[in-house]
């Protein structure tokens, strides 16, 4: 579990992590990171990422690479002055259908109690996340993007993509056991 304990460090972490989180949600193709930046076998999300990779490959997805993202930074909450993650980890899959961001919870936890509310603001979108797991913004519309995001909850996965055709492909993948 990641812990950041000083108030100054927490503020600096938000300045660094929030822009990284929101930039991961653009509809741009996801290039593969250099070899050293790929998801490590020691990453807490590694086994879940490999399981999802196998599932995707069974449905004609070509997974070019998997690398960690800063998505988990949105799931950092203050517990008695210590910033802690409420998720197991996250990964970005670069595939032939586009980029797929995934947040993982430790099994047997699921995203069933996690609620996402979307609101239009100007030409963009605002999102509010409530329930379990907790998020840093609490019950506020603080997450904004220019492009609409699609969220798929399945078991211990929260899948985030910005392409509606990719959503259809993923729904077919997740429909099968």
List the strand order in the largest sheet. 2-5-6-11-10
Q: Helix/strand-derived class?
A: alpha+beta
Strand content: 25-35%
Number of domains: 1
- Average of pLDDT: 81
Pick out the low-confidence regions: 1-28
Could you estimate the helical fraction of the residues in percent?
A: 10-25%
Shape: globular
Number of strand segments:
11
- SSE series: EHHEEEEEEEEEEH
Sheet with most strands: 5 strands, antiparallel
Number of helices: 3
Distance between the termini: 30 Å
Radius of gyration: 16 Å
Account of the 3D structure:
By secondary structure, the protein is an alpha+beta fold. Strand 3 (76-79) and strand 4 (82-85) form a beta hairpin. It has 3 helices and 11 strands. It has one domain (3-175). It has a 5-stranded antiparallel beta sheet, covered by helices on one side. A 3-stranded antiparallel beta sheet has the order 1-4-3. A 3-stranded antiparallel beta sheet has the order 7-8-9, with no helix packed on it. It is globular and about 40 Å long. It has helices at residues 7-23, 46-57, 164-175; strands at residues 3-4, 63-67, 76-79, 82-85, 89-95, 98-104, 114-121, 124-131, 143-145, 150-154, 157-161. 23% of the residues lie in helices and 33% in strands.
